[in-house]
Amino acid sequence: MAQQKSCSENESLHYARRKFFKQSTLLTALALTPPSLIKAAGDNLDEKASALFEKQSLEIEVNGKKHQLSVEPRVTLLDLLREQLHLTGSKKGCDYGQCGACTVHINGKRVLSCMSLAIMQDGKKITTIEGLAKGDELHPMQQAFIKHDGFQCGYCTPGQIMSAVACINEGHANNEDDIRQNMSGNICRCGAYPNIVDAIMEVKQKGGTI
Amino acid sequence: MGYFDDDDRVNGKAIVTGKAKFIAEHEVANVTHGVIVGSTIAKGSITAMDTKTAERAPGVLAVITHLNSPTVPGYDAGGNPVKGPTGGKGFQVFNGPAIYFNGQPIALVVADTFERATYAASLVKSQYQKNEHTTNFDEAGKSVVALEDARYKDNIRGEVDGYKNAPVKIEAEYVVPIEVHNPMELHATIALWEGDDKVIVYEKTQGVKSSQRSIMNAFKLKEENVRVYAPFVGGGFGSALRTWPHAIAALIGAKKTGKPVKLVLSRDQMFTMVGYRPFTKQKIGIGATADGKLLGITHEADSITSMYEVFNERSVDVSRFLYACPNVTTRYHVYPFNVSTPTWMRGPGEATGTFALESALDELSYALNLDPIELRLRNYAETDPQNGKPYSSKFLKEAYQLGADKIGWKNRDSKPLSMKEGEWMVGYGMGTGVFGAGRGTAKALARIFADGTLLVQSAVSDSGPGTATAMTKIASGIMGIPGNKVTFELGDSSLPPGPTQGGSTTTSTLGSAVYDVSMALKNKLVELAKENSIFHTTEIHSAKAEDFVLENGNIMLASNRNKKISYTDLLKQNNLNQLEVTEESKGNEEMKKYVAYSYAVHFVKVLVHPATGVVKINRVVTATDGGKIISPKTAESQMIGGVVGGIGMALMEEGVIDNRYGRWVNNNFADYHVPVHADVPHIEALFVNKPDLILNPTGAKGIGEVALIGFAAAVANAIYHATGKRIRELPITPDKLI
């Protein structure tokens, strides 16, 4: 019952907002708005008209490349990367922040991109798995994952690698148990865990900045 | 046959750079997004649906329900066009108002973006006539009656329930709950119709050919008009062995809208739409003489299925063939509930069955005061107990030895509660895994180019075991071409037909095809070489293929390696840009005289905390007889992966349904626990590594399933050793130990 109630509350909020657009904004905005919107309104497609208002501008830098975008506020960073920027290296494994497959770096820190709204990243620098290698030269962590066979199907791998790089940078890779603890947000259903730990240990032991 | 030393996965670079394209990641022009709406009752029928609000929502192209769905021609013929190898009518998506389980697909919303489709899906409303459902599996055999048409009937060898007359006997009940595959990649389909009778489908599948067949059957299409792609598959473990209703829904959506549709299941939908390991309650009665000779085993299992399909698996069969035993009775029953259809999950029925059998053996060993391995050796089957056939190969004894030596089995004190490390109780346990080693039919193509590179193709999926890597090794070994000059192409149904990746048969089946096609291509090269002036002698025409050696891109006489020519020169001199062969490969007649199984022996050391009941897997040694190991590095990973799956089965995985609503409670990774880094220690995977050349020319038997089979029992046995508590209900969570 409780669940149903909250559903209908959401709905009424939704309808209220739609109604607002329909009754006031749409009418007053008509004179100022582009032809597509006027056409939408003319077709009595108030829902479509209101949708055009909802996009927000966004400027982010992804893997060193600046993007000027216009996105709906509800779009997650993960879906922006995958569906709009076609950077599909970041994976959707659960969409609830429970599996780590979507891990990216935002201003150098590991973040679950499925739990981050895109519009909140305005002005930030994002690094995804696609931005880790320098041209053809793999990042040491990528090399170590290949060498130690730190994956099987490979789906969780970009998230594991992004997390592993951050894990070392955070100072959380001092020994195997430390790594296991601090990598536990990244699920691998194929069970490549021991090899992933070996890969991280090797990179850590080689030292240097990564 | 030599294999190249480079053990790295051939697709490793694509994976670690994020360039590998998994199913939902293929760019298809003008793609739209489909989101499925599930039912909110478990049984009854839909009386009304309101889709108007959803249809008016921004970006929505269509809302498809049973009221407006285009016809799926295969449904009209009755039957189940997209069935897995199970019985029953099957679930026909959007083809009627009946509700069989909670979360059943009742609508598909197609919109221009994922967000808009997701939002609009929340606006679809339905009304039901609700009937009383049952998801309480304890009702099996009470209010819920067993199905008549289960595939596995009672099976009796020797005396019925012969164990009862034995001087030493154990009787116990075991429960394996629902477990869910949960591969990390969400199941996804992209459907793109090219006209009324032609479709391209990107589909998460372990078998591109079997998916193609299901889609052909469902939509009555010609083989050449259905192309299924799955170049990278992000895990499956059985969930991608068949074509599920959501895939058909995506095809319907694309047909209805005239636009390509991408449909990705949500993680919670992964619990209700793509199968699971069925809840199974087992009873074992096992009896032996005082010196440990088995006299009888009775193994019974009650399992579950959906209201519309019968799913069977071989849970009790292990008791018929793992040990030499004169009197074996097995009984297997399946009960229908208001749940979706289960399917094979890694290790399938054998994993369920060995949890009971290998736990019972351990219990019996304590009753007999015999070492558990000694008990198994005293009942070692020298021929298959079911039919007396010899094994084409069996190195289980060697595997026992290998694993026992490595973990220091003899050094433990076998008495329960006898070992400690600090405040932790220490236990050692072992369990045996067994799985039939089969070989099916497959075709492969091999094409050598004038630049010395080799292309090998077959329509197979690689969901993680490293099939492309193993096939590359086989081809490169025979052809004498370095691995980095060999490309193995897969994941496309238009390639020569390959096997479905399941049942531990890919390497045996496809490896044989790659072996055969490589040998055929070698013979072609040898024939060309014989005509070449370098080799020209009077005897050359009587030379056989085996008189030539192929090495590092050159063909040479075994008797005189100085006489050689590169493939490049050979092809150029014959004005050939390329040379290709396609071969079909299948099991041989000789094998009919034999039986083959793969074996894994799992040794586990656990630590159990006496106050909290926390179990830590401290060490694992798994010794495997999987025949010849083609690709050691990926094989080791596969064994480790099976063990990790076994840790989940033993300690944490359990699907929970709220019986009041027939609805899932823990359909996400926060509540359905799977092993994470912190749960998994270093795992040592050892191989006997002896080829079975009767089974197939590569000598490989297969390891994917045995990697998990028997593991849960090893953990339960180790926990008994540590605590003196015999837990027969999985998962062994801390509450069961305090």
The oligomeric state is heterodimer
Which regions of chain A contain 5 or more consecutive residues with pLDDT less than 50? 1-31, 40-44
Number of helices of chain A: 8
What is the number of beta strands of chain A? 5
Provide the residue-averaged pLDDT of chain B.
Answer: 95
Beta-strand residue fraction of chain A:
5-15%
Backbone CA Rg of chain B: 27 Å
Largest interface between protein chains, with number of residues from each side: A-B, 64 and 68 residues
What name does CATH use for the topology of the largest domain in chain A? Ubiquitin-like (UB roll)
Q: What is the molecular shape of chain A?
A: globular
**Taking Cα atoms only, what radius of gyration of chain A do you get, to the nearest Å?**
22 Å
Question: Which superfamily, in CATH terms, is the homologous superfamily of the largest domain in chain B?
Answer: Aldehyde oxidase/xanthine dehydrogenase, molybdopterin binding domain
Structural class of chain B: alpha+beta
Q: How are helices and strands ordered from N to C of chain A?
A: HHHEEHEEEHHHH
What is the terminal-to-terminal distance of chain A?
A: 52 Å
Low-confidence stretches of chain B: none
Strand neighbour order, sheet with most strands of chain A = 2-1-5-3-4
Going by CATH, what is the homologous superfamily of the largest domain in chain A?
Answer: Beta-grasp domain
